[in-house]
């Protein structure tokens, strides 16, 4: 499977579908919106297979966002969660630095008073 041009790739093993001869599956949950390409290759019995299936006009649809279907609130996307975590991390680092500076200032004032 190829997503985003070639930004992400992964090989899935096809498994036979029980009670359905000549049918195979590789279940997955798409986590990124966009175009997907499936390349099915290998050997089934003595038959070599190498086929490519791409989403697009006249083919199958690309993966779309499910946020319009979410109710009553839309969930944050993975990218939004990462962005928020980065913001929290920056705030935490800033608070830590301020705490260190304040502590150093307090220690310096104590040392100055003792002299």
Written overview of the protein:
The protein is built from one helix and six strands; from the N terminus they run ββββββα. The radius of gyration is 27 Å and the shape is elongated. The chain has a four-stranded antiparallel β-sheet with strand order 2-1-5-6, with no helix packed on it. A two-stranded antiparallel ribbon has the order 3-4. With 115 residues, it is of the alpha+beta class.
Short summary:
The chain is α+β, with helices and mostly antiparallel strands.
Structural class by sheet pairing and helices = alpha+beta
Helical content, roughly?
A: 25-40%
- Name the assembly state: single chain
Q: Helix count, per DSSP?
A: 1
> Taking all residues together, what is the mean pLDDT?
90
Order of helices and strands: EEEEEEH
Biggest sheet descriptor: 4 strands, antiparallel
- Uncertain segments are none
* Radius of gyration based on Cα positions: 27 Å
User: What general form does the structure show?
Assistant: elongated
Name a few traits of the molecule.
115 residues, alpha+beta, four-stranded antiparallel β-sheet, 22% strand
Q: What's the helix and strand layout?
A:
Layout: E1 2-3, E2 8-9, E3 15-16, E4 24-25, E5 36-44, E6 47-54, H1 78-114
Antiparallel strand pairs: 1-2, 1-5, 3-4, 5-6
């Amino acid at each position: 499977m190829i997503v985003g041009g070639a930004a992400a790739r992964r090989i899935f093993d096809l498994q036979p579908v029980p009670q359905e001869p000549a049918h195979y599956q590789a279940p997955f949950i798409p986590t990124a919106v966009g175009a997907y390409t499936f390349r099915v290759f290998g050997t089934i019995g003595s038959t070599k297979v190498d086929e490519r299936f791409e989403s697009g006009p006249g083919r199958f649809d690309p993966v779309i966002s499910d946020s319009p279907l979410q109710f009553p609130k839309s969930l944050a996307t993975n990218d939004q969660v990462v962005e928020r975590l980065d913001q929290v991390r920056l705030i935490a680092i800033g608070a830590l630095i301020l705490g260190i500076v304040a502590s150093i200032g307090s220690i310096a004032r104590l040392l100055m008073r003792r002299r």
